[in-house]
Amino acid sequence: MKKIINDPGNVVPEMVQGLVRSNSDIVELIPNTEAVVRADKESMKGKVGIVSGGGSGHEPTHAGFVGKGMLSAAVCGEVFTSPTPDQIFEAIKASNTGSGVFLVIKNYSGDVMNFEMAQDMAEMEDIPVKSVVVDDDIAVENSTYTQGRRGVAGTLFMHKILGAAADLGASLDDLEALSKQVLPNIKTIAVALSGATVPEVGKPGFTLADDEIEYGVGIHGEPGYRREKLQPSKALVEELVGKLKAEFNFKPGEKYAVIVNGMGATPLMEQYIFMNDVLDKLADEKLEVVFTKVGNLMTSLDMAGISLSLFKIEDDRMVDGLKHEVKTIAW
Amino acid sequence: MKKIINDPGNVVPEMVQGLVRSNSDIVELIPNTEAVVRADKESMKGKVGIVSGGGSGHEPTHAGFVGKGMLSAAVCGEVFTSPTPDQIFEAIKASNTGSGVFLVIKNYSGDVMNFEMAQDMAEMEDIPVKSVVVDDDIAVENSTYTQGRRGVAGTLFMHKILGAAADLGASLDDLEALSKQVLPNIKTIAVALSGATVPEVGKPGFTLADDEIEYGVGIHGEPGYRREKLQPSKALVEELVGKLKAEFNFKPGEKYAVIVNGMGATPLMEQYIFMNDVLDKLADEKLEVVFTKVGNLMTSLDMAGISLSLFKIEDDRMVDGLKHEVKTIAW
Amino acid sequence: MALTVEQAKTWLEDFYTEIEAQKQYLSDLDTPIGDGDHGNNMARGMTAVHEDISDADFASVSDLFKKVAMDLISKVGGASGPLYGTAFLEMSKTAAGSTELKDLVSAALAGIEKRGKATTNEKTMIDVWSPMAEKLNSDEAVSEADIDQFVESTKDMVATKGRASYLGERSVGHIDPGAMSSGYLLKALVKVGA
Amino acid sequence: MALTVEQAKTWLEDFYTEIEAQKQYLSDLDTPIGDGDHGNNMARGMTAVHEDISDADFASVSDLFKKVAMDLISKVGGASGPLYGTAFLEMSKTAAGSTELKDLVSAALAGIEKRGKATTNEKTMIDVWSPMAEKLNSDEAVSEADIDQFVESTKDMVATKGRASYLGERSVGHIDPGAMSSGYLLKALVKVGA
Ligand SMILES: Nc1ncnc2c1ncn2[C@@H]1O[C@H](COP(=O)(O)OP(=O)(O)O)[C@@H](O)[C@H]1O
Ligand SMILES: Nc1ncnc2c1ncn2[C@@H]1O[C@H](COP(=O)(O)OP(=O)(O)O)[C@@H](O)[C@H]1O
Ligand SMILES: [Mg+2]
Ligand SMILES: [Mg+2]
Ligand SMILES: [Mg+2]
Ligand SMILES: [Mg+2]
């Protein structure tokens, strides 16, 4: 393992310190936690707070999306491990200015359980809390008898839309309704070129041969649906857009927002080449692309690979939400 | 070589296409080139244009810094290869709204020669052009008998300061004077954990053992000054800040701006941990840190590693320049 | 078969020692069908428990379990934190009335089932807690070998809850890491001989 | 010793063929002391030259060289683009008056020196162009073996210009890639026998 760290057991607090100290105009640490809250308190007044979080190792997610117009607070768990309810509860308290707090949870058993416990704690203190569980990763088969689909980079669409709405004064109920409208319209699929190494583990979660890729890998290196030989970008796009097409059932003229997300070790050059091919493919499908974003947004430590998220726009106000101005570290 | 590309010989045009198509509100392609110019023409009116560029593979540098308040245009050469004078000339023309154009050049023989030829071409068409050659990489010994120091991530300070000044209406002469004031006060030093692979070459420019690092590597993988065993972040900071201290001759109470730059494959988590240690070390030196930035800003394709840039602030207006609002893809 | 504070402390200290010893093995079990952190997660939690209980006095088993629950809830995270935390929280509530093993284990099981919304045969720790509760409730003796066999039974199951569920059929052939750590916990309990 | 348009075309086509053949070798030379792209850079430029001149007619050597200069300037980039481009631009100017080899080579050398702000013994292509110009100007015959020796001489030099200069003393022991490509160019020139 070759990493710029000190103690593998202490990476999260040191990272959070570094992040807060170098962005003190945007975020501040919530005392005695590994959670951050907006520095700009004025921007939270009278608004519903939006709280998200999860395991660390996905930077800039989630702390990088805290700021006016987006998240109110973010909780940083251990690497690839859901944060604990007490920390989530502190973030809820720090985000509540009297209008309640909305939680954006990614669908992992750990996240769901810890956020639920935090929600219980908040309700015991009479803080109104509602939540959405995002499950955009179409690599996993959906079934009511399983954990269901994972929450991955498409979650950023949820953060952005809810953050914009909260900024404009939406109520907790409004946000819940909005989240239900967004949820079925975001879907993501990834391809990995290499596995990620958790500092405390010291070796990659999975390994791929020099010429091998894996479709459908999750953001903690959860297994995907197929391994094969490395393909050119256009062929990867063919496969991944094909999967999304089957899920969305594309119809000509439909509008979509697109995120191409680097998993951590994949250069921006490759992400732009991939996006170029995605845009060609969506044009072939006669879809209208109304919003695009490219970059390392929800990473998996040093994993190489890319995820592609689509958000079907059924209401043009969603585009306004996506374009709503924010002041965050990383959006 | 495991990369998400199509044809190794065609990566630059495809990347530029992807970048422009996904950020059409900020940049547009200059016809028949691999150069981009601001989409917001209004923001350039009556202002001196700022043009930079260089080899590709350093994304988001330079195209990611084009936009109101920063660069007017950026020229994307072949991977790690200086762009050609005709393309630079097109960028100069596209950036000139009558007040002339200022060129920010990184000190490589290729960049200097190609930009100089473009400057000759512009002068033949009566476009006033001035320039600065940035040489912030202290890994290289300086001498009037050599090529001198390389231009690396500290160049971003130059882009930011000049971009802000131009935005506020500085003249070509003002910008030249300002660039001379900034130049001696920016210094950078890097450490690499792995080499970068140029798509057309297909193998890393250099290789390091599993437990080996190299201090002083350049952004094209140019050799550094020492190889040794991997160290904890705090020890890397000790070495790199030590080098900068010797160059700047730190005095208590001095003010500095700091950029921690990821080389491409190094996760943000490690960059923040490293920044945390840098801030501790600078505090030990009784220096005041007035500006910080962390991220993949001037990368070297898939190189793992970090560079640390300091900018000594002798005039508080520099801080205003650093904080001046911009609308770019990546600042 | 009622647990005293001393026995409960011994139980938890033994479990702490076992987790420290098996930390790597638990993470290794979590690698093929999870994210390789179960040993680290449990060790983080049990280190906190050990630090908080080893030199402290507790008025009751209920108080002790409450402390353990809080440590696990606030230190472990992931899926196992809320599950073990809830188990001890429920055992703490029950222990206010009874410290009979069958009552404690039944309360823990109910808490885990509620928290995880899972049931038996989904290849989770429930597949250890549930047969354990069943045997105790029918007043049968439970041996360490019995518990080993509960743990082992998860090997042939298809995971339908937790991270391992993403593997579907491919989860077969691997012991569930949470079942293994629950096995350690329950074997340590059997050993204190309450 | 004056060059005709036909000879000049043969020269450049031969050079193109050689660059294509030696592309990998030139990049390999550029790897230890540079950035490994010299072969790709030259091939990109000479492919454009080949495409533009092979089926075209040129009224004069000067016109031909101007086209070559423009192709190299606009296609190569890096350090070698402006250097070779300027060399051909200066040769184009000179060729309007004289196509004597010594005049052409001297003009190219002056252009390279001006553009690169370098001189001999800095381990660059100048260490091939300069002794070549010197021999021609003293009306000595230049053999391919002579040129090989100019190229070889860069091996023992310390680079003080261009990318290789970052290596300082460590650049010793490697042939300069730009010297090698210039060697190919000048050997092809000698071969056309003008
Ligand atoms: N919904 C659930 N119900 C019961 N047990 C579960 C559930 N989800 C996960 N588990 C248990 O948690 C264990 C994994 O714990 P751990 O690795 O610490 O957390 P994570 O999966 O978040 O990394 C699994 O082996 C399984 O026994
Ligand atoms: N200042 C200079 N003067 C003369 N020749 C130079 C100078 N700088 C570089 N060169 C030549 O250019 C060659 C490198 O060319 P190339 O690899 O194509 O460009 P780059 O160094 O930009 O990658 C060197 O081998 C050397 O011969
Ligand atoms: Mg986990
Ligand atoms: Mg080059
Ligand atoms: Mg786990
Ligand atoms: Mg080169």
Distance between the first and last residues' Cα of chain A: 30 Å
Query: How many discrete structural domains of chain C?
Result: 1
User: What proportion of the residues of chain A form beta strands (DSSP E)?
Assistant: 15-25%
The overall pLDDT average of chain A reads 96
Descriptive notes:
The complex is a heterotetramer, with two copies of chain A (331 residues) and two copies of chain C (194 residues). By secondary structure, chain A is α/β, with parallel strands linked by helices. Chain A has helices at 11-21, 85-95, 109-124, 155-167, 172-182, 233-248, 268-284, 317-323, and strands at residues 27-29, 35-38, 49-56, 73-79, 101-106, 129-134, 186-192, 212-215, 226-229, 255-262, 288-295, 305-313. In chain A, helix 4 runs antiparallel to helix 5 and helix 6 crosses helix 7. Chain A is globular. The mean pLDDT of chain A is 96. Chain C is mainly α. Helices cover 66% and strands 0% of the residues of chain C. Chain C has eight helices and no strands. In chain C, helix 1 packs antiparallel against helix 8, helix 3 (61-75) runs antiparallel to helix 4 (80-95) and helix 6 (126-137) runs parallel beside helix 8. Chain C starts with a helix and ends with a helix. Chains in contact: A-B, A-C, B-D. Chains A and C meet through strand 4, helix 2 and helix 3 of A and helix 2, helix 3 and helix 4 of C. Chains C, D: InterPro entries: DhaK_L_YcgS, DhaL_dom, DhaL_dom_sf, Dihydroxyacetone_Kinase. Chains C, D: Its EC number is 2.7.1.121. Chains C, D: It is an enzyme of class 2 (transferase). Chains C, D: Keywords: Glycerol metabolism, Kinase, Transferase.
